[in-house]
Amino acid sequence: MKKALLIAGLIGASAVAVRADTLALWTFETSQPAGTGLSITASPESGSGLATGSHTNASTAFASFVGNGSAHSMSADHWGIGDYWQFQTSTTGFQDVHLSYDQTGSATGPKSFDLSYSTDGSTFTLVGNFSVLQNGATPNASWNSATAQSAYNFGDDLSSITALNNASSVYFRLTDSSTVSINNGTVGTGGTDRIDNFAITANPVPEPSSLFLLGGLGVLAIALARRHS
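Given the sequence above, the corresponding structure tokens read:
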């Protein structure tokens, strides 16, 4: 029985060794996108990829306002249905994708967003819809450079979407899906949405030798357990 427990412990230790890696992280501390127009881009502070802000109104002002626990984030006004934030990276050699990001808006900023993904940048699949909280509205404290406010954080477990595994490019869009503002009125031209700390993480795809070892250990553990039961 002790041998079986030892083998089981080795299997558990091997499983724990599989860790999530950050494939791309945008904090906007160095990119600090700003300008007026239809779109703007920003490189990640770590990893590889590209963030894009895309709007249909040429008067859109993209700005770098205070972040959630940092000095900078990415912000935009003049929101309309179909306008979006997009984040692209590669998952080659990785699987079990997770997203984490902070998002908020002003009272007349857009309330409802769709999260979708793509592997070609043109055909997107909807994951779900979510609502954004107004920055600083009771009972939540406002974003500030000193302390990150967890109320504005979103986490998405996309590990069940196998199309995102080991892909040369993956794209994630947060798309304005309604004309309803955060204060339940109508989205205003000056209403803003702000995003920060967008992280794409995943687990390394196990090497074939590792899978063989785990499988062999599992069979051995079962055999030993039966012998000593």
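The chain has two helices and 14 strands. Try to locate this feature in the token string yourself.
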